[in-house]
Design goal:
The chain has 2 domains: 139 residues, ATPase, substrate binding domain, subdomain 4 (Actin, Chain A, domain 4); 40 residues, no CATH class. Helices cover 48% and strands 2% of the residues. The protein is built from 10 helices and 2 strands. Strand 1, helix 6 and strand 2 form a beta-alpha-beta unit. The longest helix is centred in the first third of the chain and has 15 residues. The protein is globular, with a radius of gyration of 20 Å. The chain starts with 11 loop residues before the first helix and ends with a helix. Its main location: cytoplasm.
Length: 180
């Protein structure tokens, strides 16, 4: 269902690079430490459930400031750092799919991601429409598992474009077969 697909050009690599910039600007130069900073991002960042309250906490000095939500916030509001993209909630609203949202990928492992997304969608969606957000047990491998099931489907040969078909017909075979 191609009408349900939306791409937001904000992902894990951008978040890691932004965190490298923040740390390098404020503390020490870590621009060459992608692996380390990516691990830091995965280990300590979270998605804020109460943005304005967390912003107040972030203004405190020393150990009272325990907030690590600024980097994942980019997934919801990329324009905050000058990226002219819609956030994930707006992308889902644009696709008009509220009842069958499946979260995949590493970024949804941030604590609080599913809850924040569901709350924002509920606030944006018409009141009469149900909102359902599913987070699989292993969201990183979930798409691969779906592809594996498809590959074992009896209809597989009918729904794929073979290399030979593509080489003979070019991208037109994909447009024809997948109605794109």
């Amino acid at each position: 269902m191609k009408e349900g697909i939306r791409r937001v050009n904000v992902g894990g690599k951008l978040l890691t690079n932004h965190l490298k910039e923040i740390i390098s600007y404020r503390q020490l130069h870590v621009m060459d430490e992608t692996h380390v900073i990516n691990q830091v991002k995965e280990d300590v960042c979270y998605v804020s459930q109460q943005f304005f309250k967390d912003m107040e906490i972030s203004q405190m000095k020393g150990e009272e400031n325990t907030v690590r939500f600024a980097v994942p916030e980019m997934l919801f509001h990329p324009s905050d750092i000058g990226i002219q993209e819609m956030g994930i909630p707006e992308a889902i609203m644009h696709a008009h799919f509220f009842q069958n949202i499946v979260l995949t990928g590493g970024n949804i492992l941030f604590p609080g991601f599913r809850e924040r997304l569901e709350a924002e969608l509920r606030a944006l969606a018409p009141a009469h429409l149900p909102v359902s957000v599913l987070q699989p047990d292993n969201p990183i491998c979930y798409p691969w598992e779906g592809g594996k099931l498809l590959a074992h489907s009896p209809d597989y040969e009918e729904i794929v474009v073979t290399r030979e078909d593509f080489e003979e017909n070019g991208h037109f075979i994909c447009e024809e077969k997948f109605d794109i």
